[in-house]
Amino acid sequence: MTTRAFRIGLLLLALAMPVGAAAQAAVDPPTDSACLKDLYRAFGREHRLERAVLFGKPSAEDAPLTAVYYDAEGNAWAKIGEDEWQSPGAAFEEEDPISNDDMDGRHEKDLLCNDNDDKIQSSCVKLPRRGIFEIRKTPTSDLIQPIVQTVRAMQCRLRAICDVAADSFEKAPGDTITITIDGCLPMTFPVMRGCIDAESTIFNTLPGNCQEARQQMVEREMQLLTLTASYDAAYRSLAQFAGIFQEFLVQFRFPLIEPLWQMVRMLGGLNGIPCFQAECNE
């Protein structure tokens, strides 16, 4: 390549860079969009629900200090005392702390839970909730099937959340949207208020950005679950070995140690035996 050709190439690259930056700025949606806030808030709710299914969630009374729970509006509450919960949000700085019972009543619930449907409402487990990894007296291999099913359910729900955000455009507040994902049960969600009057930029770029965020979340959870399942299997194997070995020691202790105890007691009684004539010093 000649020097002139090289200079022309640099000039074309310099002219192309501002155009590419401007195009990227036009495609990327604003981070302060109400639609994106509702979308990521729904993602966070689904993520916490998946964690509660896997690891369980105690009641507010049994939760440790500094535990963080979320209410139905998506506001975070931290446990600052034995019976005190405080929200760190700026809008709640003047509000007095709430009790454990109030926190249990305000705790967020599944968006699929419908108060008017007894069948769906009966499946909405309230706090405390027992997790899959909290199941005792079973090997980790028996937990693989419900763990995989939990991940699959999270994938279905996250894909449905993306469709709800896209279909909420120009809907009315209070409406519901029924989403059917291939291989998943139909799900009905309320519309996202922030996406009703979303800008055209948000509406055009939302599907791609949502699917990318969903895929990244699922991949991260699968990697964390791989590590968690490995640790759980090692811990359960160690606990099983310790239980078996402890029982072995209990069964092995008396047949092995009892003769030694008898020998010690017998040797302790040798002081009372008279000495033989050849061994006596007096």
How would you describe the overall organization of this protein?
The chain is mainly alpha-helical. The chain contains six helices and five strands, in the order H-H-E-E-E-H-H-H-E-E-H. The protein has two domains: 130 residues, no CATH class; 72 residues, no CATH class. Helix content is 54%, strand content 7%. Helix 2 packs antiparallel against helix 5, helix 2 packs parallel to helix 6 and helix 5 runs antiparallel to helix 6. The relative contact order is 0.11. The N terminus is likely disordered.
Detail the poorly predicted runs: 1-30, 115-123
* Gap between N and C termini: 118 Å
Whole-angstrom Rg = 33 Å
Question: What amount of the residues lies in strands?
Answer: 5-15%
Q: What is the string of helix and strand elements?
A: HHEEEHHHEEH
Given the C-alpha coordinates, what overall shape results?
elongated
Number of helices: 6
The overall pLDDT, averaged over residues, is: 76
Q: Got a strand count?
A: 5
Write the layout of secondary structure elements.
Layout: H1 3-27, H2 34-55, E1 68-70, E2 76-81, E3 84-86, H3 100-106, H4 118-122, H5 144-167, E4 176-179, E5 187-190, H6 200-268
Antiparallel strand pairs: 1-2, 2-3, 4-5
Task: Describe what is shown at a glance.
The chain is mostly helical and 282 residues long.
